[in-house]
Amino acid sequence: MPPGTQPLRDEHRELLPELELLRTAAEGIDSPAAVDLVSQALRFLTSRVLKNR
Hints:
This protein has helices at 6-27, 34-49. The chain is mainly alpha-helical.
């Protein structure tokens, strides 16, 4: 692996738990906990993903 891509790989690895949260929120959308999961997912998207655009 080229050393220049390692920082990007590290950042992606760090984001994996939040990305799994998105999957959990989508899969559980009919559950009572859906509101909390979607709120967490929205915070992740606005604070981490959109910030890095």
